[in-house]
Specification:
This protein is an alpha/beta fold. It has a single domain, classed as Rossmann fold (3-Layer(aba) Sandwich), CATH 3.40.50.1820. Helix 2 packs across helix 3 (84-94). It starts with 6 loop residues before the first strand and ends with a helix. The chain has helices at residues 22-30, 56-69, 84-94, 116-126; strands at residues 7-11, 34-38, 76-81, 99-105. The longest helix is centred in the middle third of the chain and has 14 residues, at 56-69.
């Protein structure tokens, strides 16, 4: 891959799938970049059913699996929308050597005062039976 060619990994928000990125995918490819758009657990064409998602790790498994599959020395630009800010944050923490940049598109962006677990606890308070 040439120096100017970037590999973008697009991660959708809640109630979406990789399909939501179709226009951006076309634009990035037209500009000569590589693009991967993933369907998270029970979203888009991912075969998991919603009742099989019992934790955030089940939900982000496709992203983590993809990141683990990247060859050593390759890095990507992670782009997350909405709730995917949490997902790309987890991926950046788990695979720092494989991420050149994280882009948060109107997305949750954790920091030291509001780590990912804070959001998970807040979401659970709204849905206590999940």
């Amino acid at each position: 891959m040439g120096e100017d060619v970037k590999h973008f990994v697009l991660v959708h928000g809640v109630c979406h799938g990789s399909w939501c990125w179709y226009r951006l995918i076309a634009l990035l490819k037209q500009a000569g970049h590589r693009v991967t758009a993933l369907d998270l657990g029970a979203c888009g064409i991912n075969p998991k059913q919603l009742n099989e998602i019992t934790s955030i790790w089940d939900y982000v498994h496709p992203l983590m699996e993809f990141m683990a599959s990247l060859p050593q020395g390759e890095s990507v630009i992670l782009v997350g929308h909405s709730y995917a800010g949490l997902c790309i944050s987890l991926a950046m923490e788990s695979f720092p050597e494989k991420v050149s940049l994280g882009v948060f598109v109107t997305a949750y962006m954790p920091d030291f005062k509001s780590p990912p677990l804070t959001l998970i606890q807040e979401v659970k308070s709204f849905f206590p039976n999940s």
